[in-house]
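Format notes (please read before filing issues)

Several people have asked whether sequences and structure tokens are stored in separate files. They are not. Every record keeps both together, in the order shown below: the sequence lines, then the token lines. Line labels are part of the format and must not be stripped during preprocessing.
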Amino acid sequence: MNTGERDMDVIGERTDYVFGRSATAGGAGDPGRPTAVGVLHGIRASLAHVFGSPDLEGRTALVQGAGWVGSVLAFWLAHARAAVLVADVDPVRAQKVAAQVSGDVVPPDEVVDAACDVYAPCAVGGVLSAETARRLRCRIVAGSANNQLAKPEAADVLRGRGILYAPDYGINAGGAIALVGVEQLAWTTPEVDAALVRIGETLREIYARADAAGVSTAAAADALAEERLRPPDASL
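Then the structure lines:
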């Protein structure tokens, strides 16, 4: 958190094992935009699963965290005609982003109880405890924050309440995908964009598996990740 391409450039002065350096330093730049675009694709896939349509028009989305990723996501949500609510511990930043997207500000201590269709945590992790999950007034949790589950059981509480959870490392993968694609695989912009679209496809697979197995989406995502990482010749 709170790092950018300048920080990566400094790290790159000491090691080659760093992604996200500036273009002038040979990197792909800040991953905030592809992260936000990937989250947008994930939100659309989540809406389609819950409501039968990926359309954001007429939906309300609460973006918690008005930093680089959150502010870009708020813009795209507003561009898709969603009503946007913005929350941030910095009231000036929250107000600025809300004004840019013609949205409203929600005080940080009122986020959990705010009514919305989509709750997008885009700040610190650990925001989804069992207690929080019991209080949420949304149908979908889909944001860019890492480690959103304070404890694994929160995912089961969400499932029990009929709230669809987009597993964090699935929906927020756009930045990592773009950095590796550009810096290691020499992808073009269309190739990066196509890979970001596949984030929505992956989430749809996770949701289908969770429904079929009667488990939380977090459990289904972990199972899919283990399956993809398993060596081809593994017996288990």
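For reference, the curators noted about this record: The longest helix spans residues 189-213. The first strand starts at residue 60 and ends at 64.
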